[in-house]
Design brief:
The strands form six sheets. Strands 3-4-7-10-13-16-19-21-24-27-30-33-36 form a 13-stranded parallel beta sheet, with no helix packed on it. An eleven-stranded parallel beta sheet has the order 5-8-11-14-17-20-22-25-28-31-34, with no helix packed on it. An eight-stranded mixed beta sheet has the order 23-26-29-32-35-39-38-37, with no helix packed on it. The radius of gyration is 34 Å and the shape is elongated. It is mainly beta. The chain is 3% helix and 40% strand.
Length: 425
C-alpha cells in the first residue's frame, strides 16, 4: 500500500490534513474479488439425538437448524432416521447429502435453491434405500444424484415442481420415481445406474438419455437417446422418440420378460450413433408373448442391430411383429443387421434352436420375425416302398429311421429312385 501526504497549500493550513493511500492494481483486484466471491458453504450434520424433527436445534451438531447456504449431511451414525421436516413449508436448502440407507423424510415441502453451488439431493450409501415423501420445488437447475450403489426413492408424496428449470438425474445406483414431475423444464438421465420412472408424468419438457432409463410410466414429451444409453420398459412416450445411439429393449426389468413400448409420436433411429434393438420372445402375442415397439406417427429404422432372444424354440410358422407402425403413416427400413453383421433382410438369423426370417415391410409398416424349421432339425423320413401297398400312410413304406410311423410335420420326405415302388398314393 502506498500513502501520500497532502500537498502544501496555505489556504488549507488551518484545516485538518488527510493522508491519501492507494492499493497497487493487483491488490485492488484481489480485494474486489474477495468482496464479491461467496464464501465456501459450511456443513451441518444431523445427529437425531432429540427426536425426528428438523426444526429442533438439538438434533443438529451445531445446536441450530440449517440455513440455505449449508450442505446438510445425514450420516450413517444418525440416531433417528425416520425424520419429519417441520421447518416452514418451502424452506430453501442448497444440498442434502445422505450417507446411509434407511433414512426417510416426511412433512413439509422443501425448495432446492442456488446459494453458491448447484442445488442437489445426493446419496452416497452403498446399499439400502433413502425414501423422500415431501414435495420438492426447483428454484434453479438442480440435480438428484445417487452417487452410491443404493437406491433413492421418490415416494408418491415427493412431487417435483420443476417450473422451467432443468432436472439432472445423475445416477450410479438406482433412482425410483413414484411421484409426479411437473413443469416445462428438461429432464436429463445420466450416469451408469438406472432411473426407474413408474408413474404418469406431467412435465412437458424434453428427456435426454445418456444413461439407463427404465420406463413403466408415461413421459408426455419427446425423448432422445445417445450412444451408451439403454431404454427399457413397457411405458409410453407422448411425443417423438429419436435414437442417436444406444439400446432399446421393450419389456420390464427382468431379462427375458416381454412387453410393449409405446411411442405416440414418431419412432426414428437416425444414421448416426451405434444403435441396438433387443426383442425377447416367448410366443406370438405382442406384449405377453414377445416384445414390441409401436409408433403412431411414423417409423424410421436405420443402421441398427436387431437382436432376437427366444426364451425357448418357437414353433415353425410363428410370426412376431417386433416393430409396428401405423399403416397410414410413412415407414423406412434401411441398413438393419443381425448381431453377426449380416443384412437383416437378406439372410436368416440362427437364434438358439430357431431360425428366424426377418421381413422389413414398409408397406405393412412393420418389422416382423418369422420362425421357420431349421433344416438340420428336420427328421429324415425315407421312402422305401417295402409295404404291402403304395400308400403314404402305411408305416411299413418308410425306413426304420422314421420309426415305421406315418410322416408328420417337421419331417423331410425323401424318395429314393431305387425304392421298389415309386408309385405313391
Amino acid at each position: 500500500m502506498l500513502c501520500y501526504p497532502p500537498p502544501a497549500d496555505s489556504r488549507t493550513a488551518s484545516r485538518p490534513t488527510m493522508t491519501t493511500c492507494k492499493l497497487p492494481a493487483a491488490a485492488a483486484a484481489l480485494t474486489f474479488l474477495s468482496l464479491h466471491m461467496e464464501p465456501l458453504a459450511a456443513a451441518i450434520t444431523w445427529d437425531g439425538s432429540s427426536g425426528a424433527f428438523w426444526n429442533t436445534p438439538a438434533n443438529w451438531d451445531l445446536n441450530r437448524v440449517p440455513d440455505s447456504t449449508e450442505e446438510v449431511i445425514f450420516p450413517a451414525a444418525g440416531a433417528t432416521k425416520a425424520m419429519t421436516n417441520n421447518r416452514p413449508a418451502g424452506t430453501a436448502f442448497r444440498q442434502l447429502t445422505f450417507q446411509a440407507g434407511g433414512y426417510s423424510v416426511t412433512g413439509n415441502g422443501l425448495t432446492l435453491a442456488t446459494s453458491g453451488a448447484a442445488p442437489r439431493i445426493r446419496t452416497t450409501h452403498p446399499s439400502g434405500t433413502v425414501a423422500l415423501d415431501v414435495p420438492i420445488t426447483l428454484q434453479n437447475t438442480a440435480t438428484l444424484e445417487a452417487a452410491g450403489t443404493g437406491t433413492l426413492l421418490l415416494n408418491s408424496g415427493a412431487d417435483v415442481q420443476m417450473g422451467t428449470n432443468t432436472l439432472n438425474c445423475a445416477v450410479d445406483g438406482t433412482l425410483v420415481v413414484e411421484s409426479t414431475l411437473s413443469g416445462s423444464g428438461a429432464l436429463n438421465v445420466l450416469g451408469t445406474g438406472t432411473v426407474d420412472i413408474r408413474t404418469v408424468q406431467a412435465f412437458t419438457g424434453p428427456v435426454s438419455v445418456t444413461g439407463s432409463l427404465l420406463l413403466s410410466g408415461t413421459l408426455p414429451g419427446s425423448v432422445i437417446s445417445f450412444n451408451g444409453s439403454t431404454i427399457r420398459g413397457t411405458g409410453s412416450v407422448g411425443g417423438d422418440f429419436t435414437s442417436n445411439g444406444g439400446t432399446v429393449n421393450p419389456g420390464d426389468a427382468q431379462a427375458g420378460s416381454t412387453g410393449i413400448f409405446t411411442v405416440n409420436g414418431a419412432f426414428t433411429q437416425n444414421t448416426a450413433g451405434t444403435k441396438r434393438a433387443i426383442f425377447d420372445i416367448r410366443g406370438s402375442t405382442p406384449g405377453t408373448g414377445h416384445d414390441q415397439i409401436t409408433s403412431a406417427e411414423g417409423l424410421t429404422l436405420r443402421n441398427a442391430v436387431v437382436e432376437v432372444r427366444p426364451a425357448q424354440p418357437q414353433p415353425p410358422g410363428t410370426r412376431c411383429a417386433l416393430v409396428q407402425g401405423d399403416p397410414e403413416k410413412p415407414a423406412e427400413f434401411s441398413g438393419l443387421t443381425a448381431p453377426d453383421g449380416s443384412p437383416l433382410t437378406a439372410a436368416s438369423d440362427v437364434v438358439g434352436m430357431s431360425v428366424v426370417d426377418f421381413a422389413a415391410d414398409a408397406g405393412f409398416r412393420a418389422l416382423v420375425a418369422d420362425f421357420v424349421m431349421p433344416e438340420a432339425a428336420l427328421s429324415q423320413c425315407l421312402w422305401t416302398g417295402a409295404g404291402a401297398d403304395s400308400n403314404l400312410m402305411t408305416p411299413a413304406n418308410w425306413s426304420a429311421a422314421s420309426g415305421f410311423s406315418t410322416p408328420a410335420g417337421g419331417c423331410a420326405l425323401t424318395f429314393s429312385s431305387s425304392a421298389p415302388s415309386n408309385r405313391r398314393t
